[in-house]
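WARN retry 2 of 3 for item q-0093 after timeout on previous attempt; input resubmitted unchanged.
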Amino acid sequence: MPGKPRRFCAKGLAGPVPSGGARLTWKALPWLALLALLLIPALPVALGAEPARFDAAARITVVYDNVPHAPGLRTAWGFAAVVDTGEERVLFDTGGDGERLVHNLDRLGIAPASIDAVMLSHIHGDHTGGLDAFLDRNPSVTVYVPESFGAAFQSNLRRRGP
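OK item q-0093 returned
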């Protein structure tokens, strides 16, 4: 169904092993894990998919964290980063405090109006707390949230709309 995350499950793996079948012992587990680590990254290419390529033009700038990486940044518990592809700028999460977020964006030379979209990962305050202050400076930005965000949060966000 469109718009809903897919859930994957392995069917038929639970339950008793048929008589005469091989049994998996705990001693084999490390070897199986090693085998999986070696083979899984190659699986998409083996199935004909193009290997993933790193786009050197894309840039990720951490703008809110508890560890300063540039002089003059204000720190606090939480996270926010700007992903700049050269064509679009996305603010991923908004940290825990709007004043700090906006200060750090300014200090790093990133104008809130230059952000095309905001994507929130989860509803913890240290990832969403700066949203209101950011929206005060860029009220027409598109905001993406997972369906797991409560109805009240989504309703408040719609109410703030441009």
